[in-house]
Structure formats: structure tokens, C-alpha cells
Amino acid sequence: MADVLPIRNITPNMKNWCCLVTIQEKQQVTDSMGTPTKKQKMIFYDSEGSRVEGIIFNADIPKMSPILQVYKKYRISNADVRNIPEKFQTSGLTMQWVITARTVIEEVSREEDIMPVKFSFTEFADLAQYMDDKSKSVDVLGVVISSLDKKTISKSTKQSCVQKFVLLNEESQTVMLSLWDNFLNNEGQILLNNIQTYPVVIGRRLKVNNYNGVSLSTWFDSAVLVDPPIQEARELKNWTMRNTKLIAQLIETKAYIKYNPELFLKADQKTTLICNVSLSQKTALVKANISFEDIFQKYWYMSCGKCNRATAADYGIEFTCNSCKEKSPAVPRCRFDIDLSDGSGVIPASIFGDLAEKLLTFTALEAMDHFNQNRELPLEFVHSSLKTKTFLLHIKPVQAQLADARQRYTVLHYSELGQEIDSAQLIGQPDALPISAEHRVQTAQLLTPGESSSGSKTRLRLADKFDEAETTAIDDFATATDNCSKRTKLG
Ligand SMILES: [Zn+2]
After folding, report:
1. Quick one: pLDDT at residue 475?
2. How far is the CA of 446 from the centre of ligand 1 (A)?
3. Ligand 1 centroid to 374 CA: how many Å?
4. Residue 416: its pLDDT value, please?
5. Count of CB atoms within 10 A of residue 123's CB?
């Protein structure tokens, strides 16, 4: 009979040993760069809390992987023990047990113990500092309260599946976690099957992305632990059960689909000087003044109330949208151009919807009424008050170039500096609907360059690609012709 040893006493080339271990986590099966080798890594721990990496290769994966289930306890003997070269070490593990079809593994039937493992979780509020940094990943703890629709995305040669899950923490903050491909087939399926019971997850080695503020995504070496037997997870589960009302409300209002400024737009965030904002950045954060005094424009367009795309339908007329195929009445939507400036430069940007109304201090309906009556919006107060304010803006480049060749941007969110960031947008807005990715309104015909010469400062911004903080990754364009009959009134 082999000796039962703790993990720390098991060394390379040792014979005749056995060890009682529990599976802490399993990664997905991955390919090794540039080789046909497939491997699957896992982490084992023992009753002392020592940990070791388990690894299975190639043809042994389908045989051995199903035998080793997360959180279960096994007696493993005589696996091949190796040191992990330093550059391949992850999670501080230096030793590796190679599990093959010859390895002796017995399940030890026992109650699920609380894992004697300590994770260092990143708070949701601290995620922004890891954003889009390829060298960094985070561990987070959260409860899954809902999921969005699964999407298939074609990336050059292969198709990928992704689904977003809504993670909630005890501070009632939400963040989206995207599970890709194998994560979706494995842990994602478990989450979907149990979503009514609000599974608690620990996401390990997740990437922090810049999407609707801050979001999380699985990466090749991530691990997703569903309802792990860990003290903090149990506590969160308990909190969840005491707060089902709040959760039901969050799910009802879908507030999590909206931008999460409280996680992202913080006064101490690193910002980019306007002169340094470049197209290579997917998004940028700038500290700038806003002005639109010199821009002659319309402030609204007629839109589909469901997907926000432009339509030629008249106000209140029910129509079937060519983009989202839904039938709903046409509604005016606020949208206008602004200049963003700091000491280093000026760039043009467009702002849409609620954000635009808030900045304009008029609703789209009011803007439309003024336009229809050929009256100017009384904006003197707005213009003068903007002169005294500075804003933190999250902007994103618009892909399509326009005739004037100036790169344009869309405002994803903004907050006034020197004020608390407005989180009212986060809660209690029942109208949060998925917003279409791109909009285009051909208002170019509204004004010809000749007409603009009446005011030397006047610049034309009406021809523009309407862009939005999207909740889909689909880059299709909606083209609609706006009603041009009002152009003489504006001129
Ligand atoms: Zn629509």
C-alpha cells in the first residue's frame, strides 16, 4: 500500500505515492501555440491547502477529464510529477502532475468540504484599472442573475459563440461577463440550467474589456467556478437569497444593459489628451469642454422606438421597422453634434438619446416641435453654462468617414467633473432596450455647402453616421432618408 502524502511532499520521479486531492477548477481544453498538442489544465488542492497543477494531454483528455469533476475529492496515485518551467507557471503553481490513462484515480465519497483556498478577488469598482490590458487578468466573485441572447460571431476563418451573463455583487453593482465557445458549452450551460437559483460564480483570470463601460470576458486560460464550496461564495449566495426582490427588480428593468458609469467614469481615471486620441483606440476617455454653439443643426431625427434607427415614417405613425422588423410608432430621438476641446485640440463628436437630451436640456419632442414651427431652440442658457463646465467623456471613433475627412466620435457616456457621477441612469429606467449598433441618416441633402455660408462660423454636421453605444457586436448599417421637407425653414 502506497503512502498517503500531502501535495507538498510529492516530488518529481517519486514512486509509490498517493494523495487525497480535491479539484478546485478545470480550464477548457486548449491548443498549444503552433503544435497539434491539446491539453487541459486543472488545479488540485489537499487538506493542507497546498495546490498543484493537474494536466491531461491529447487522447487522454476524453478518457480522463470526465472522471475528474470539480469540487470532488479523489485519491490519485503515481501520476507523473514534473517541475513547471518558470515561464509556463500560472497561479503560483510550480509543480505539475500529468494525468494519463494509466493514472490510478479513485473517487473518495465524502461531503463537499469548504475549500481551504483563498482567492484575491478584484472589486467591481476597481475593474476599470485593468481595462484592455492584455498582460493583466482578474479574479471576480459574483452572482449570475440573468443572461442575454447567445450570439455567433464570424472572425476571419472561424465562428465563435458568445453569451453575456449578468454578474451582481453585494454592492448591487452589475457587470457583464462574456463566456466564449467552450466556456459556453460547459460552465455556461450549467449557468443557464440553474439561472433561476442565481448561481454564484468565481471567474478566474478573466480579461477586463472596455464595453459599455467595463465588462469581463473569458480568455483561453480562464476558469469559471460555478457555486464553488468557498466561504465567500456561500455568503454571497446567502445575501442573494435575502435580496431576491432587488434582483427581480434589476432583471425587470434590465438596468444592467445600460452603461455602468459608476464602475468606469471616475474622476481619477487616466484620460487621453484630445490631440492624442487616435483611431487605434477602440474607445478613449477624455477630459474636455463641450460646445455646440457654432454648429448649425437639427437636434433630432425620427426613429424606430424599438431599435433607434432612422425612419421616414411620420411622428406617431405605426410602421414596421426594416431593421428590427418590429411594429411600433415612429418617435423623435435626440441627436446632435458637439465639439470636444481641451488645451491640446478639438474633435467633433455626436451624442444621442437620453444623454443628448440631458445635455441639450430639451427633449427630442420639444426639439421636433420647435423645428416644425420653424423656431429656434432657446439655447443661450445652455451655451453659456457649458462654458464654465468640464466633462469626463467616454468616446468611440465612428468607423465610416465622411466627406470632410475629419474623424468623428460618438459619446458613449459623460459626466460633469466636480460633481458626483450621475448614477441615476443605472437604476429604475424601465426603457432600457438593446440598442442597434449603427444608424445612418442621410441628412446630407438637408443643406448644401452654399447654404451654410450665411454664417461664417457655421459648420455642417448633419451628414453623419449615427452611432450608438451598442449592445450587439453586429456592424450593419441602417440607411434611411430623413424627411427633407423642412430644410428651407432651417436655412
Ligand atoms: Zn427598429
Report:
1. 27
2. 23
3. 28
4. 87
5. 13
Output the CA 188–ligand 1 centroid distance in Å.
Answer: 30
- 46 grid coordinates: 489537499
Per-residue DSSP letters for 159-177? EEEEEEEEEE-TTS-EEEE
Ligand 1 centroid to residue 378 C-alpha, Å: 31
Residue 433 has pLDDT above 50, yes or no: no
CA dihedral (255, 260, 263, 266) in degrees, to 10, reads -140
Neighbours of 471 (CB within 10 A): 19
Ligand 1 center–CA 479 separation, angstroms = 12
Q: What is the spatial distance between Cα 287 and Cα 274, in angstroms, rounded to a whole number?
A: 8
Residues in the 5 Å CB sphere of ion ligand 1: 304, 306-307, 321, 323-324
How far is residue 151 CA from its own chain's centroid?
A: 14
CB atoms within 10 A of CB 175: 23
Q: Is it the case that residue 61 has pLDDT exceeding 60?
A: yes
Region at 391 (left for phi over 0; alpha for psi -120 to 50; beta for the rest): beta
What is the tens place of the pLDDT at every residue in 129-179?
788 777 889 999 999 999 999 999 887 778 889 999 999 999 888 999 999
Q: From ligand 1's centre to the CA of 307, what distance in Å?
A: 4
E-assigned strands of 371-423? 391-397, 409-416
330-355 residue pLDDT tens: 999 999 999 999 989 999 999 999 99
Q: What is the mean pLDDT of residues 183-196?
A: 94
pTM recorded for the entire structure:
0.64
Q: Mean pLDDT across the stretch 11-27?
A: 92
CA distance readout (Å), 154 to 30, 160, 198, 281, 473: 20, 6, 31, 22, 11
Domains of the chain, CATH where assigned: 3-107 (2.40.50.140), 124-257 (2.40.50.140), 263-490 (2.40.50.140)
Q: Is the pLDDT of residue 442 over 60?
A: no
Q: With contact defined as beta carbons under 8 Å apart, do 226 and 190 qualify?
A: yes
- Sheet strand arrangement including 464-467: 464-467, 438-441, 479-480
Give the H/E segment covering residue 288. Answer: strand 284-291
CA angle 296-412-356, nearest 5°?
Answer: 40
For the chain, the first-to-last Cα distance in angstroms comes to: 95
Residue 187, C-beta contacts closer than 8 angstroms, at least 6 positions apart: 179, 201, 224, 226
Q: Any alpha helices (H) in 254-337, and if so which ranges? A: 261-264
Q: How many CB atoms sit inside 10 A of residue 31's CB?
A: 11
pLDDT of residue 439: 31
| Cell 464553488 sits on residue | 228
